[in-house]
Specification:
Elements: H1 3-14, H2 18-37, E1 42-44, E2 48-50, H3 61-83
Antiparallel strand pairs: 1-2
Helix pairs in contact: 1-2
């Protein structure tokens, strides 16, 4: 079901005009999105609890290998640069 379907169902069940039903559905969805974006839980009796969870990023083995190769080269340059600090030429 998409937003248009929700609006049509609201028109059928409530007898509201399409314009009024659309405003109501938009207002409800905007409120839910705003609350979920603020890390709140939205509890709608009869529907359930809605909350937004973020998952940790998952890396594949090839991603990890690529990160290690790239960062090890960078880290090696940083160690060489730092080990020369404070030495008189």
């Amino acid at each position: 079901m998409n937003k248009s379907d929700l609006i049509e169902e609201a028109v059928k069940r409530s007898g509201l005009t399409r314009r009024d039903a659309s405003r109501g559905v938009e207002a409800a969805l905007d409120t839910i999105k705003r609350e979920l974006g603020s890390a709140h839980i939205v509890h709608i009796r009869g529907l359930g609890r809605l909350h937004f969870e973020t998952e940790a990023a998952r890396l594949s083995a090839s991603d990890v290998r690529r990160l290690l190769e790239t960062n090890s080269r960078w880290l090696g340059r940083q160690i060489e640069t730092n080990s020369n600090c404070g030495r008189q030429p």
